[in-house]
Amino acid sequence: MLQELGVVREQIDAIDAQMLALLNQRAKCAQHVGEIKARYGDAGYIYRPEREAQVLRRIQSLNEGPLPNESVTFFFREVMSACLSLETPLGIAFLGPLGTFSESAAVKHFGHAARLAPQGTIDDVFREVEAGHAHYGVAPVENSTEGAVGRTLDLLLGSSLKICGEVVLRIHQHLMTRETELGKITKVYSHAQSLAQCHEWLNRSLPGVPRISVGSNAEAARLASIEPGAAAIAGEAASERYDLPRLVESIEDEPNNTTRFLVLGRHDAGRTGADKTSLILSAANRPGAVHELLAPLAKAGVSMNRLESRPARAALWEYVFYVDIEGHRDDPAVKAALDDLAGRAAYLKVLGSYPQAVY
After folding, report:
1. Which of 66, 153, 326, 330 is least surrounded by Cβ atoms within 10 Å, i.e. has the fewest?
2. Spatial CB neighbours of 26, under 8 Å, sequence gap ≥ 6
3. Same domain flag for 278 and 218
4. 131 within some domain
5. Helix (H) or strand (E) holding 321
């Protein structure tokens, strides 16, 4: 057995050496790309979301296993993140503190080589990017069980930022504590949304135990890490950051609980062939006006996969509509629909076209 293992381990060592050489070769190519862009005055945006999405989709199409696509995608994201950081580490603003699901979304999209900049509010995330203090921002926009994040939608209405990407994060809520038994838990800390997402599990497993809402799951984990008898409901990032053991994993009531995050920047993303376009529309105050807004999409054969209404705030009882459609604004069908919409809508704002999330 030892002899057979030795042969295989020698093969692994040889492959590792080849991988290392190829990784450094790829990094040199990435540096060369930056030099070419700088020579032609195109160094303003080192990160191109459409290029990253194309690379990841191509890698998935080539993957024959045994590694699953999710693992391969994670590895190549980290490789691209490391290569980008050789020029300028990307600064990423997100809703903090560290240890939140927003941090997990930022790392999932930009990799661990990015420079993370946690912010106190979603407003601060927008401001950091608008002011140029961060290259990009990551903000939650909707949850599969709790619905839309209203503050993000409201800020998109008035912001000059573009949506240049999206991140879809599967939300696993864990009960974490320094206690070793459920019976020793005397209180549970978490964000109000996470408490709501685990309501039925808490009723069954910890009936009568006080539930205390705090500003973030990371803060809940911090408190549980220093208070005897306390537990927190939070994600894996909070558990790792505060070295807090997970007593029970995946306690969310909805097994497919997922949050969608937007990547915000100061530029558009190019076409990839698998894109989304997000819009804000308002209709004239007359019968059938909303139907008229949707007609150009049907006429051009453009699929709509999200429609959300919000108060316009400009006048009482007036609303704006947030719409996600399939395709890029430069696609002929989408362009035709947008041109038609411009003549019908009382207000039209294209928030951006961007690659669909790569899982």
Report:
1. 66
2. 79, 83
3. no
4. no
5. strand 319-326
How many CA atoms, within 13 angstroms, populate the side-chain half-sphere of residue 13? 6
Residues 155/149, Cβ–Cβ less than 8 Å? no
Residues 220, 287, single domain; the answer is no
Contact 137, 93 (CB under 8 A): yes
Please indicate, yes or no, whether residues 303 and 281 belong to a single structural domain of this protein: yes
Residues 329 and 223: their CA atoms lie apart, in Å, by 47
115-140, pLDDT tens digit by residue? 999 999 999 999 999 999 999 999 99
The percent of residues above 90 in pLDDT, for the chain, comes to 65
Q: Is residue 219 part of a domain?
A: yes
Structure tokens at 207: 């009936």
Helices (H), 88-235: 101-110, 122-130, 150-158, 192-197, 199-205, 217-226
For position 41, what pLDDT does the model report? 64
According to DSSP, the β-strands at 275-282 and 230-234 are unpaired
Alpha-carbon distance of 110 to 81, in angstroms, equals 6
Mark 157-181 as b/e (b = at least 16 C-beta within 10 Å). Answer: bebebbbbbbbbbebbbbbbbbbee
Q: What domain range is 179 assigned to? A: 174-256
- Answer whether residue 88 is part of any domain: no
Domain count, the chain: 2
Backbone angles phi, psi at 6, to 5 degrees: -60, -40
Report yes or no on 122 lying in a domain.
no
Same domain, 275 and 351: yes
DSSP string, 175-209: EEES-SSGGG--EEEE-HHHHHHTHHHHHHHSTT-
* Whether residues 248 and 307 fall in one domain: no
DSSP string, 238-301: HHHHTT--EEE----SSTT-EEEEEEEESS-----SSEEEEEEEE--SSTTHHHHHHHHHHHHT
* pTM of the predicted model as reported, rounded to 2 decimal places: 0.87
Please say which residue of 256, 283, 302 terminates a domain: 256
Question: Residue 61 is which amino acid?
Answer: S
Show the tokens assigned to 356: 């669909």
